[in-house]
Prior knowledge:
Layout: H1 17-29, H2 34-42, H3 45-55, H4 69-76, H5 78-92, H6 101-123, H7 130-139, H8 144-150, H9 152-165, H10 169-177, H11 181-191, H12 196-204, H13 215-231, H14 245-251, H15 255-269, H16 273-282
Amino acid sequence: MEQVDYLKGLKNLPINPAISSKVLEMIEKQDFSFKHLESLISADPGLTTKILRIANSALYARQNKITKLQTAISLLGLNTIKNLVILVTGTSLFKQHTGSWFYHLFWQHSLDTAFIAKDMAGTCGLPDQSEELFIAGLLHNVGQIPLYLHKPETYDSIVKMVIQEGRRFSELEENVYGTNHRELGALLLTQWNFPNLFCDCAREHGNINITSSWKKQILIVSNASFIASNWSYFDKNPKDYQLLEAQLKQLGRDVQTIRTYGANFRNILAQDSFYKECLELIKG
């Protein structure tokens, strides 16, 4: 099969991924000033505009309109800023396809996975990594984007086969492209200098035998992705949670617990203000 550079179409983006990488590094190392963070984000007008939009939303309603980025950063807090930077960067990858069927399905699933993974971090003994797992969940399927952009109609047909036949994305992608979204996602995040956790999660989510040192984190994102898939891709014909049994055992959880959790958390999430704001953000 002919070798194709599927990442080539992501060279010129409306929002620079390097900024996201630097924001992540600065916040996680706690090596920054608010002025430095403001300077970095403000270098990208599109990113700045969307952060100000969130800061001025009903969730953070104030008497006076927020026009300064530094005020927005202080109001939203570092973790929210970090998550928004990644979300905005990710949605920019689609460029002219933001109104497509796959765009909305992809980001609905990614956003749900992020919120579930963040919540599960606490229940699985990793509360101090909840924000990292939010981002890992948000980016775990990022490798699907270059495959979709290469031939949207072809990838749409793959998605429909996944939904209708319950087959795995990676299997169908290998047949058509000679690669899969997990390998491409890890390569893309590595090129952007994202932390190893996110690269490994993109590569190994869904695996039973995980080789990464971030095994527990990847298992959490894998479980979160499964639950989120039943809310989006398989909403009309949900997959049996029994399929998660092997992964759940490694987390010390059981099928009935995760089944109940999935149903309960979906109701909780529907009332979450920040989740609603993120849904509005991915609408473009």
